[in-house]
Design brief:
Number of helices: 18
CATH topology: TIM Barrel
Radius of gyration: 20 Å
Strand order of the largest sheet: 1-2-3-4-5-6-7-8
CATH class: Alpha Beta
Order of helices and strands: HEHHHHHEHHEHHEHEHEHEHHEHHH
CATH architecture: Alpha-Beta Barrel
Distance between the termini: 20 Å
Number of domains: 1
Helix content: 40-55%
Shape: globular
Strand content: 5-15%
Number of strands: 8
Length: about 400
């Protein structure tokens, strides 16, 4: 680790988290308490047992990693639970110096007969705003000496689902049981983006972006072009999980067909061996041109080091992570947690891992953190965002000087 970039410095610097899943970031005591109250059976009823049985430091494969969502989603189907979980996630972020974050989740996983999309999104908003009010009451924020703590919501469509994903999905599949399943999945995404735009506009909720998550291989993002066109036409920012389990073609499709402003993970951007199209005669040249396109247009990659290590058995050493090539190609990147509970991590931890594995310089660290603010889907006007980023940079430089770094 660069001697100047200490854990104390990183903990004090203003940070973002632009890729964090609500249902993967519960506090374990909260999960246990909510499960007891809602009659959800857990494989263990203490934190140590759940860490041993479900939420490990390492996983054998992606399926094992995703197993924990079975339990978290089961306790997140009412307003009380969602408001509490959103508040606690904001509290955990703000407590470690994360000044701005965007929490993403699939609302359709949490709906029920008496719990609508509006109810779901309002509950999460209430939790976020309660945490913002608590932290922004601090004198240094009130006086304007430091930037406030802010948060936005990204709604996620699923690349694929089955009736077993949630009661809402079970009803949806039953309602459309005579249609091909791939069409049903596309329709659910369209329904979601229409609802997100309407609720954003009618209820003034901080819904800032649209996402596509879930199993990538075999479920191309291009199938959801209609949903993304609607988001694009209604000024809803766009990010896509791409290049996590599939290759550069998936990233290209997200950028060109879905108008993605950011890319989630992007791990296989430089993996020539993952290219399958016979029309691409020179995979290495294709990758070089794609990386140049992403760099030139400042399409930011949301990098999640720990979760990639946990879900990709072939990635045995963090130093082999594609983040090294992203840095070399001068891509716009920002370090994110993905899932604070499932991956047992924090933003501070992700940054320290990057400093240690990739020997980040103070300049690279500053660029990475500032990119997070600049490329955020900030819920405000462009003027407000510029002023906010300026406040962040001023705070960054004051903290850096206190720790002996040149501004």
């Amino acid at each position: 680790m660069t001697s100047q970039l200490t854990p104390e410095l990183v903990a004090s610097l203003p940070k973002t988290d632009l890729h964090v899943h609500l249902d993967g970031s519960l506090r374990l005591p909260t999960l246990i308490e909510l499960a007891r109250e809602r009659g959800v059976e857990l494989p263990a009823w203490d934190e140590a047992g759940l860490r041993r049985e479900v939420f490990r430091d390492s996983y054998a494969n992606l399926g094992e990693y995703l197993h924990g969502f079975k339990y978290t989603c089961a306790v997140m189907r009412d307003a009380v639970a969602l408001e509490r979980i959103a508040f606690e996630l904001a509290e955990d972020n703000f407590a470690e110096g994360v000044r701005y974050f965007e929490v993403r989740f699939a609302p359709q996983l949490h709906l029920g007969d008496d719990f609508s999309m509006t109810d779901c999104l309002r509950a999460v908003t209430d939790g976020l705003r309660r945490a913002e009010a608590q932290f922004n009451a601090r004198p240094e924020v009130v006086d304007g000496d430091e930037p406030p703590y802010r948060a936005g919501i990204i709604v996620s469509a699923m690349r694929m689902f089955t009736a077993g994903f949630s009661p809402w999905y079970a009803d949806y599949v039953k309602l459309h049981r005579f249609l091909p399943m791939d069409r049903v999945i596309r329709m659910a995404a369209v329904d979601l983006v229409h609802a997100a735009v309407a609720i954003r506009d009618q209820h003034n909720l901080p819904i800032v972006g649209f996402d596509l998550a879930g199993q990538e291989n075999g479920y191309p993002s291009g199938a959801h072009d209609e949903a993304y066109r609607y988001a694009h036409r209604h000024f809803l920012k766009k990010t896509v999980h791409a290049g996590e389990a599939f290759g550069a073609e998936s990233i290209f499709q997200a950028i060109t067909e879905l108008h993605a402003d950011r890319i989630g993970h992007g791990f296989h951007l430089f993996s020539a061996d993952r290219i399958t199209s016979e029309t691409i005669e020179d995979p290495e040249r294709y990758i070089a041109r794609l990386a140049q396109y992403i760099a030139d247009r400042r399409i930011t990659v949301e990098v999640c080091l720990t979760s990639n290590m946990q879900t990709m058995p072939e990635l045995e050493d963090l130093k082999d992570h594609a983040f090294a090539k992203m840095l070399d190609a001068r891509l716009s990147t920002t370090l994110c947690t993905d899932n604070r509970l499932i991956s047992n991590t924090t933003v501070t931890n992700e940054i320290l891992l990057a400093i240690d594995a990739f020997d980040l310089s103070p300049r690279q660290l500053k660029q990475n953190l500032v990119y997070g603010f600049k490329r955020s889907f900030f819920p405000g006007s462009y003027r407000e965002k510029r002023a906010y980023v300026r406040q962040v940079i001023d705070l960054y430089e004051r903290v850096a000087r206190r720790h002996g770094l040149p501004a």
